Amino acid sequence: MTDPTTRETLINHLFRVPAKVTAAVLVAAIVVGLVVGGPVGMVLLGAAILVLAGMLALMWPDIPATERLLRLAVLVLVTAAAVVRLAPS
What we know:
Helices cover 82% and strands 0% of the residues. By secondary structure, it is mainly alpha-helical. Helix 2 packs antiparallel against helix 3 and helix 3 (38-59) packs antiparallel against helix 4 (65-86). The longest helix is centred in the middle third of the chain and has 22 residues, at 38-59. The chain is elongated and about 55 Å long.
């Protein structure tokens, strides 16, 4: 048998967490980060963006092109909302 790669190990750990829990935590972090603003909002939004980017990078080879585009669009949308919300007026 071959040892699983780091990518496969991370994906296996990710799939152990229910999808609804992952989605709820990410949505909550994004909403609270946008509402609160300031340093706390920046940390929450930054963490959510990093998690979304990491999940996209891990799953990239295994998901169809349309799903890739949708996930990339969500990542860009959240990043743009964070920049607009946290940038000084």
